[in-house]
Amino acid sequence: MPHIHTNPNQHDMTVSAYILLREDDEWKCLVHFHRKIEKLMQIGGHIELDETPWQAIAHELEEESGFSLDELQVLQPTADQVKESGNVTHPVPFSMNTHNVGNEHYHSDLCYGFIAKHRPRREAANGESQDLRWLTLDELAQAARDGEALLDVTHIYEFLVNQLDLYKVVPAISYSLKKPESVGVVYKSGAPGEL
Q1: Domain harbouring 49, CATH code
Q2: What is the pTM of this model?
């Protein structure tokens, strides 16, 4: 999806998937070659106006990596979910950052950590980068030093691998892709979006 907010100093909300796979007794990090940025980076993209963040991560995973949620586990601070009446609970990102993407435009990014048990069953969608790579932390750091990968992606993957023991591994399909059906809050004066 294109940028939603395009005036100077505006922000778009984005989601990122940092996906780890254990192979040959070491962690491999999934990156893809982003054709517009011309660097290796994580899977992710914009949250569309009609999506929840979790719906956005699900569609970006399928389009850019070929993974579906049922093939992944999401890293969470607890395996338990808050029980809510009428609301839909989403997983907690392990990090959130705001970064400058040039032209006085910013992305505020929800970063989700995933564990894959195998490589994706499907390929990335047509029109998406087919250059996907599973790199060790050392290989990713070297790619960043060589100018081939984004340095921030390397730092975020290093942080995630070093913090793995603090997280619970939860099936990603444990979280609903639906939107709430019942109305939990009603505006008493005006409607959402009105002043």
Answers
A1: 3.90.79.10
A2: 0.92
